[in-house]
Protein 1
Amino acid sequence: MLGVDPTSVIDYALSTFVKSDSSTMLDVTPMTIQDHQREKAITKTLHEKLMTGGIDVLFQPIYDTSSKTFKKAEALARLYDPIYGPISPLEFIPIAERASLINLLSYSVIKTSLETLRCLEEHASTIETISINISGTQVGDISFPEHVVDLINMHGNDPGSLSFELTETVMVSHMQSLKDFASAFKAAGITLTLDDFGTGVSNIESVLSGLFETIKFDGNIFHDLTRNRTGSSAIRHLIALFKSLGIRTTIEGIETKEQKDSAIGAGADELQGYFLAMPMTKEDLLALMMPASPDDSKDEL
């Protein structure tokens, strides 16, 4: 094949043959070879990172509308590849799943989060909880909660200081296994958050199943709905319903003061977005949450 290294073709063919039925026809094109080489390089970078200190983690503070302080933060895994540069989580998370590295990746994020929580506690920070995203493959792994509890005990943290986020799509696809998964976490005092609410195909019965302590509204959908009176009314009633059942609500994607005011007016408990705080390193988070910082700067948000 012109323009393609024969060694790369053989490597791609062997890799694909192992993963598929032996009768599968291979579609070998320069693009498929390029994609294979990219995934192979990113997998190598992921593995090296996880074996030599862990994945990079940023934290985005989450604003509590009642106390007018940051009481939570979301942990965000980040990956930089020496060849391809910054890699989006939308790309490297599925690669981690295919390479059976997803649990190692999560454990790395959890360890960093637990260490950060201890530092925040030492600095008398108002942040009490860090939320971490999990994938569908982990929901089906009943050993995952056990390992999480072991990590928490090892670091001496309160189990309630961690919350795990999963999307509507994951919930719908793994509803039965999710119940066992959630029960294991609940028994340990760890909460679950439903992320990107409004983007999936969940029904109200699933959402109100008692599995989730917090519902995160997708920012784009929230902002679209609240542009008219009918949508705004529907959102306010839905948030009021969740609140009556003891479920907290978070609005994501807050990028302007108008969006912040709209979310507070709708009754949301928590807000997250660039207008309030950008994703930041552990060091920047600790600096932001230093007690010496004037509270007035947060009130002005």
Protein 2
Amino acid sequence: MSAGVAGRPRPDDGRMDTTLRIAQQPEADALLARSPLALLVGMLLDQQVPMEWAFTGPYTIARRMGGDDLDAHAIAARDPEDFAALMSEKPAVHRYPGSMARRVQELCRHLVETYDGDAAAVWRDAGSGAELLRRLNALPGYGRQKSQVLVALLGKRFGVRPEGWREAAGPYGEEGARRSAADVTGPESLAEVRAVKQEAKRAAKAARSAKAAGAGGTGRPDTDPAAGHPRQP
């Protein structure tokens, strides 16, 4: 067993072995590839900021906490104001570091209480894609869409493929898709994913405008109830 950030042993079977190009930064991508908790935190941060910024976040947090990996126990036990300050230090880990610091700590507390801090246990023995999706959807800060993206990412990049995983991932599980972090293998595919996301946002905005015009109102922006900011898929 190897030692965790706070001196606790990490289960060897919780570590992963693959190559990622999501953060577009070698050290950050290496951490995502070997650390289940870093992957969960990066996925949590992937909202309202460019994908590379979000997935570099776990590496930045680990460095600022003085380690080479994240530790759910250490993050969960950290003073909330201190952790928010760590997230806010320039360059900030996220556009909204205060609200995201709270979400990261809530995620880590859930992992400590439910899985003894072992992030890989979320998917290690999931008997089906549907069960894996339910487990992810139960994580603080994870909605259905984010959970489906991670099901797809685990299946496509890490070989975590319980029966029915593609169906559980929905459109993100499709072979050859360019919809999410699950499909990023380098700068070219990242640009393709970004273009698809931007087109989806334009289509959604047009649909909202048409609905508002038909109702004779101005419409109400879709907001993130936890952060109070416009939600971006």
Protein 3
Amino acid sequence: MRTHLPIDEQESELTSALKSHQNLVLVAEPGAGKTTRFPVTLLNFLGKKKIAVLEPRRVAARAAAVRIASENEGFELGREVGYSVRFDRNLTETTPIAFYTEGLFLQQLKSNPRLEGYSAVVLDEFHERSRHTDLAIGLLMELQSLERPDLRIVVMSATLDAARVSSFLTSAETGIAAPIVNVPGRTHPVEVRHGKEPLSLSTDRAWTERVLKTVTRIYRGEEPVIGDILVFSSRGRRDSQASRSAGAAVYSNMRAARSAHS
């Protein structure tokens, strides 16, 4: 079901900017809807011509394509919107909205250096820049200035130095910097609760036990909460096994707590 998001209110501002400029910088706070709504707006504006959307991670590319397919009437995954990531592909040569990881898009550029059939390229989450991102935007700007003045380039992010990116995206044709459109996000109230028991979290077991104890206390009603619980771990990838163990233990305790209340 398609719900209202903040970016919907600025659709006319976005299309107006694209009417008079080759490039665009879209700064949208988390929850604004830039990743799932703007590609559809761009597709409608450009007359159903193909759009490539670049994502830094495979999971983001897949999830965005699935979301767009589910919330737009008449869209089918692999037909109107799809994705191509390493070891996984769900699109055709005529799919109008195609999500790529940046590395896969560079492969697309090698086989189709003029990007024939594409009318726009969107670089999402630009603040997570990598060598693939820098190479892609450099090649796109060169292509636009030398052979494809009709190609639109859009950079999107929640956090970036918009003025510098706008200057970099200055049109070779007009000498005008890319316009910047800011979209507010959708926030939710957050309550912070500090534990009263100091504990060294130097071991995986200590961290797992603390997470398990806290979440179990919440679900058993000592600290009643309505909704889901999201646990952040800042300890790095080496603790992924500990995180999975904690998740499994929490799920087991949640089921036990709910069974006791039923």
